[in-house]
Amino acid sequence: MKRIVKRILLSLALIIILIALAGIYKFNYLANKEGYDIDGNKIEFEK
Hints:
This protein is 57% helix and 0% strand. The protein has one helix and no strands. It has one helix spanning 2-28.
């Protein structure tokens, strides 16, 4: 039983870390690319 709980907690920790890394990617990588604002959101140009 303890082994199952340990695996569940480790899995949740891994998921949280992956979500955090995805956020870091969005804000740091995309914010430096042309066509994206400082928050990493794509800038839409009106025609």
